[in-house]
UniProtKB/TrEMBL annotation, chain A:
Molecular function per GO: ATP binding; ATP hydrolysis activity
Protein name, per record: Monosaccharide ABC transporter ATP-binding protein, CUT2 family (TC 3.A.1.2.-)
Main location: membrane
PANTHER family named among the record's database cross-references: CARBOHYDRATE TRANSPORT ATP-BINDING PROTEIN MG119-RELATED, D-ALLOSE IMPORT ATP-BINDING PROTEIN ALSA-RELATED
Pfam families, A to Z: ABC_tran (PF00005)
Database matches in CDD domains: ABC_Carb_Monos_I, ABC_Carb_Monos_II
Record's keyword terms, sorted: ATP-binding, Cell membrane, Membrane, Nucleotide-binding, Repeat, Sugar transport, Translocase, Transport
Gene Ontology, cellular component aspect: plasma membrane
Chain ranges of the ABC transporter domain: 20-255, 272-516
UniProt-annotated location(s): Cell membrane
Membrane topology: Peripheral membrane protein
UniProtKB/TrEMBL annotation, chain B:
GO MF annotation: an example: transmembrane transporter activity
Main location (coarse class): membrane
InterPro entries from the UniProt entry: ABC_transp_permease
Species the sequence originates in: Modicisalibacter muralis
Membrane topology: Multi-pass membrane protein
Membrane-spanning intervals of the chain: 31-50, 56-77, 89-110, 116-141, 153-172, 192-212, 243-261, 273-292, 299-317, 323-341
Subcellular location: Cell inner membrane
Start and end residues of each stretch annotated as Disordered: 346-386
The name this protein goes by in its record: Monosaccharide ABC transporter membrane protein, CUT2 family (TC 3.A.1.2.-)
Family label: Belongs to the binding-protein-dependent transport system permease family. AraH/RbsC subfamily.
GO CC term (a single one): plasma membrane
Record key words, sorted: Cell inner membrane, Cell membrane, Membrane, Transmembrane, Transmembrane helix, Transport
Length: 517, 386
């Protein structure tokens, strides 16, 4: 089938012929359409880069191609014949491997064992370690990377670990390699090494599908550019026909109206001020993921924090909320220092966080919509020892009305809601505590554009009533919506601060994402 | 605005309305139906099984497991487990027996004979103390609950053995002149014909039902087990909740120890061995999820009754104790099986795809380290464009 030599000979007759094609691929999660009829080709021995903002559908598309999930409709055509993958193993047998952003290596094993994990060589006499080692050495030589097969993976630098992942993909004979944000955690020199390896792979006929937020970097390596927006492919071009401006234009598209900064009222005093806040890296304590950052927000003001992955946004917001400890600095809420208070005490004082990952940090999946909504404000409907059902019902009803949750009622299971409505439950839960300052970490992550607009409208309504809002985002378009002020974070520091009249290019330049000449 | 709220009003059902669905009812009521089936079957097999007196006797046996199971439920609801309850039960019995013998304070040359109510309180304090150690280890030192409470299982048992040198206290009656009589009340007395142990279990059950369903603490327990991270960010004092449930479990075990030693009129250091597993079984049969967040007292009590009535029924009809063990094990496995059916939700397996049957692992293996095979056939790949 896939290794059929005659098929290869036929397809390789034409250079750059599509080795893998997606035809009208659509994927829906409940009522959310993550992909809408996407078409694109992967060309033999070339790099095809997918551009698109968060939530544009890049990762979903990659998951479809690599067999992690199955498309709702549409076809995948491999070597001219339609295929379906029900698992990554199947896709891998047909030569398609994916290298995820979070590497899937076992850090406690050495390079050799990782490469042959799950398909150890040898038979009844046990594993043939010598042969495995020889093949690993061979792979590393081919990749021109002097990594000893017996080194523990945890002792390797991240860039080297990525090379090991690539080697593993090659060892199962992958002809199509999908790389999801491979450079996001690499140093500049490691990126160079990775690019050399990619060029080397190309010359051997391996096709690469590449996803990156670092547009300029991607432009160095890609041969084809595919741009996705809101689950649909908006543009395709070859490298020679495009530049950075083209990508940004197609990525962001016509501005969907996410609102404008609320006005017509006077901002209040400073509600929250951060003074020299630092947060140490969880794994490398000497490193700071947030580095002496200072910021203040007034009542009624909306501040947007923009930054790439790893810029320290999440760590900053979690430390302010009390989830992670600050290594130094002070958090002052309405003139009162709250740096030493617990999360519960900060909530009581009026500071709440809507976390980035609503499944992991936001929702209690075993509880109903109503119980989730009322979780943070139990005190409000407790009288003496017992909770009052009537008053809880009132709190839940109010929340459902205030944040416009579409649900069958408070008794519905949390899993029955769409992503956008789940997000509104998390926001509604925190707003039910009547906060003075609300922090939202990527509130628009994984929700559709309509829900996004609604979330933003909620925030600007809140601000107009005196709420101080800080939200973070990795989508430039969202900065230019309701925020009065845009703060760009890079490597744990504020690299720039803009008013609402800034351009996308200026923001991206300040984040280190793209340098526009 | 009014339009929206009216629309929302009409589409909204009540928060606490029950949903009625026969299939679900059967599944959720499985412990109840199992109990009915057990009673029916044993009543047919033995004429003595179905009598009020036998039910009361069996219930006083169930009381021990019921108390342990309720404490265990609280722990399991937070996503933990408490393996130390059997040992705590034994330790509590021995401690109570020790106090009943009189505490001699050599420095003062006197021997104190605390009254029974003081013995009861001190024993509960001991149970709470064991729970505090468990809870602090789990919540603050991040020791996995399984390991922390497994350690406590050994420590508490060891201490119980040390206290008596492995012997059993047989004299728990106290004497009127010392004013410490009445310990047998817990095991033998009946109020309105119902054994005191059963009443104590019912009381504990009612308190826990109220706590779980009507207090903030109950909500905290469920949210901690459902998603501790989300609960913490919502202001739930997750660590304190975790410590509290182990304390409550310890107290429940201590009460069970008091009742058991009173029933047996003796306090042995090996009492309650492997009871922790029976308690877990009761919770699981009652429909609670071992991953936390799901379960209730009603189900757990039913689970305890299922195990107790099954075990006693097997004794009554004269089945060998080896078979009893086999039956109990089977019931537990079936219960867990039903649990996984209940909580599987709407997750469905994707249908297997066609094609892709020929390329085997061996095929890939022979080609290992030969990724360049294809490119050597083809023409040179295009240069990367700058």
């Amino acid at each position: 089938m896939s290794h059929n030599a005659s098929t290869h000979a036929a397809t390789e007759a034409a250079i750059g012929e599509a080795v893998l094609s997606a035809r009208n691929i659509a994927k829906s999660f409940g009522s959310v359409h993550a992909l809408k009829a996407v078409n694109f080709d992967v060309h033999r021995g070339q790099v095809t880069t997918l551009f698109g903002e968060n939530g544009a559908g890049k990762s979903t598309l990659m998951k479809v191609l690599s067999g992690v999930i199955q498309p709702t409709s549409g076809e995948i055509i491999l070597d001219g014949e339609p295929v379906t993958f029900s698992s990554t193993t199947q896709a891998q047998r047909r030569g398609i491997s994916i290298i995820h952003q979070e590497l899937s290596l076992a850090p406690n094993l050495n390079v050799r064992d990782n490469i042959f994990m799950g398909r150890e060589l040898g038979g009844v006499k046990g594993v043939d370690y010598a042969e495995e080692e020889r093949q690993t050495r061979l792979l590393m030589e081919e990749l021109d990377e002097p990594i000893d097969p017996l080194t523990l993976v945890e002792d390797l630098r991240l860039g080297q670990q990525q090379i090991v992942e690539i080697a593993r993909a090659l060892s199962v004979d992958s002809r199509i390699l999908i790389m999801d944000e491979p450079t996001s955690a690499l140093s500049a020199s490691e990126v160079e090494v990775l690019f050399r390896v990619i060029r080397d792979l190309k010359s051997r006929g391996v096709s690469i599908v590449y996803i990156s937020h670092h547009l300029e970097e991607a432009l160095q390596i890609t041969d084809h550019a595919v741009v996705l927006r809101d689950g649909a492919m908006t543009a395709y071009a070859e490298r020679k026909d495009i530049d950075l401006e083209w990508i940004v234009r197609n990525m962001v598209g016509e501005n969907f109206d996410l609102g404008t900064p609320p006005s017509g009222y006077r901002m209040g005093e400073v509600a929250l001020s951060l003074e020299n806040v630092s947060v140490a890296d969880a794994t490398v304590p000497e490193r700071s993921v947030v580095d002496r950052l200072s910021l203040s927000v007034r009542a009624g003001e909306i501040v947007c924090i923009y930054g790439l992955m790893g810029a320290g946004r999440t760590e900053l917001l979690e430390s302010v909320a009390g989830r992670v400890a600050m290594s130094e600095g002070r958090v002052v809420l309405e003139g009162e220092e709250i740096s030493r208070l617990s999360i519960a005490e900060r909530i009581a004082k009026g500071l709440v966080l809507v976390p980035e990952d609503r499944q992991r940090d936001g929702l209690v999946q075993t509880m109903s919509v109503g119980e989730n909504l009322s979780l943070a404000s139990i005190g409000a409907f407790t009288k003496g020892l017992f909770t009052s059902r009537q008053r809880e019902q009132a709190v839940v009803d109010d929340s459902i009305d205030n944040v416009h949750i579409k649900t069958d009622g408070g008794n519905a299971a949390i899993g029955s809601l769409s992503g956008g409505n789940q997000q509104k439950v998390v926001i509604g839960k925190m707003l039910a505590t009547h906060p003075r300052v609300v922090l939202l970490d990527e509130p628009s992550r994984g929700i559709d554009i309509g829900a996004k607009a609604e979330v933003f409208r909620l925030l600007s309504e809140g601000a107009a009533q005196g709420l101080a809002v800080i939200f973070s985002t990795s989508e430039v378009g969202e900065c230019l919506s309701i925020a009065h002020r845009i703060v760009v974070m890079s490597r744990g520091r504020i690299s720039a601060e803009f008013g609402a009249d800034v351009t996308k290019e200026e923001i991206m330049a300040a984040s280190g994402e793209a340098v526009v000449a | 605005m009014t339009d929206i709220s009216q629309a929302a009003e009409s589409s909204r059902s009540r928060l606490f309305s029950g949903n009625i669905d026969l299939g679900r009812l059967l599944l959720e009521g499985r412990a109840f139906f199992a109990l009915i089936a057990i009673i029916a079957i044993f009543s047919m097999l033995s004429p003595v099984y179905f009598s009020a007196n036998n039910f009361l006797v069996m219930s006083s046996h169930v009381a021990i497991f019921g108390l342990l199971s309720i404490g265990m439920l609280l722990v399991i609801l937070t996503g933990g487990i408490d393996l130390s309850v059997g040992s705590t039960l034994g330790l509590a019995g021995v401690f109570a027996g020790f106090l009943m013998q009189g505490v001699s304070l050599e420095a003062f040359g006197v021997t104190l004979y605390p009254p029974v109510w003081v013995v009861v309180i001190l024993t509960c304090v001991l149970g709470a103390f064991v729970g505090v150690i468990n809870g602090v280890l789990v919540a603050y030192f991040k020791v996995p609950a399984f390991v922390a409470t497994l350690g406590m299982l050994y420590v508490a048992r060891g201490v119980a053995l040390l206290m008596t040198d492995g012997l059993t206290f047989n004299n728990l009656g106290g004497s009127p002149e010392l004013g410490n009589t009445g310990f047998d009340w817990l095991g033998f007395n009946r109020i309105l014909g119902i054994p005191a142990g059963v009443l104590i279990m019912a009381l504990v059950a009612i308190v826990c039902i109220l706590a779980l369903s009507r207090t903030p603490f109950g909500r905290w327990i469920y949210s901690t087990g459902g998603n501790a991270r989300a609960a913490e960010l919502s202001g739930v004092p997750v660590k304190r909740v975790q410590v509290s449930v182990y304390v409550l479990s310890g107290i429940c075990a201590a009460i069970a120890g008091l009742v058991l030693s009173s029933q047996l009129t003796s306090a042995g250091p090996t009492a309650g061995t492997t009871y922790e597993l029976t308690a877990i079984a009761g919770v699981v049969i009652g429909g609670a999820a071992l991953t936390g967040g799901r379960g209730n007292v009603r189900g757990t009590l039913l689970g305890a009754f299922v195990i107790g009535f099954l075990a006693d029924g097997l004794v009554i009809i004269g089945v060998s104790s080896y078979w009893q063990t086999v039956f109990t094990g089977a019931v537990i496995v079936i219960a867990v099986l039903l649990n996984s059916i209940q909580y599987r939700g709407r997750k469905k397996r994707s249908e297997p795809s066609d094609g892709d049957t020929s390329s085997s692992r061996e095929g890939a293996r022979t080609r290992v380290a030969d990724p360049a095979a294809e490119s050597t056939v083809g023409k040179p790949a295009p240069q990367p464009q700058k």
